[in-house]
Fold each of these.
Amino acid sequence: MTIAGETYLLDEPFFVLATQNPIEQEGTYPLPEAQLDRFMLNLWLDYPSFAEEVQIVKSTTSKYDASVKHILSAHDIVEFQNLVRGVPVADNVIEYSVRLADSTRPSSSNAPVYIKNWIRWGAGPRASQYLVLGAKARAILRGRFTPDIDDVKAIAGPVLRHRLVTSFNAEAESVSAIQIVEKLVHDVKS
């Protein structure tokens, strides 16, 4: 990692979590698409429920002292990462992942007409890789030994939405990247 011209080597499992608040965009520079592509997932967190917000306010406006417990070691995290990579995947699941990512590219012969109209730049090969890795992790978390196409479909939004650069036509028609991903998931054949 390089910060202010200085290079630092970080031990595995080093990863980056970044937050983005739409209100805080004023006066900031959005990351270029090539940098956004390096993030595996784009997760949306909505407002908390009323009860959750009450708990947040209680815990942050009192003398409450949260105790943080060590749950996993760096070694444990690396082992889980290796476990996910070791999960077998059927060819049809990999092919679906690649077909889905490829369908986001306006220049692809597999791209539907609406992609050519709504997308300026589609997802690259990292998207295909992350669709498969995300599907593997989801299968494990659900107690299954291998992912299926439904796992890919479930992870498609968080993997693809920040990789699509929409066109003026999409903006003019108020079509968002996530709406496009949802339409593709429905339209791309399994």
Amino acid sequence: MNTVEEKLWNYIDGSCPAEEQEAIRRLIEQDEVYRRKYDELLALNNEFAAMELDEPPMAFTYHVMEGIRNEAALNPLKARVDKRIIRGIGLFFVLSISVMLIIALSSIHWSAAAAAGSTPVKFTLPNFSHYLTGPAMQISLFFDVVLALYLGDSYLRKKRMQKEDMSVLPGGQQGKN
């Protein structure tokens, strides 16, 4: 839309200041381009005013609100957990246990004499002490502290939200705190 049309629409709508209305009125009287454009826009505005607006049926709002209520009722208020996340966590633990079992079984000293039953099999667990060094423990401890803070914060937020929900009664009335 150009500025001529914008000025004329503002003049037709009456949304421009009085001095600008006077200037546009003089332009319409003096300039042929403004007069033709004004006549076009005025005819269009009259057509718009003569149109009947379609109104939704009386029960439209009720049906929309019921649809929203039904949709909200289908989804529980608790957050849904993605099954892929659960499977990923389970897969991590299964792989971890499998790796530890394989390491433990590979560290057993098998011998032919042990198979004959003359000497018992020596079973020693692998040495994990070189994995549990200072920096590894610090990283693990840091992760645990951050996780504990996050879980504590989410618990307190949930508790506060429940308290706020209980303080507002249906109908917009405030309950006693």
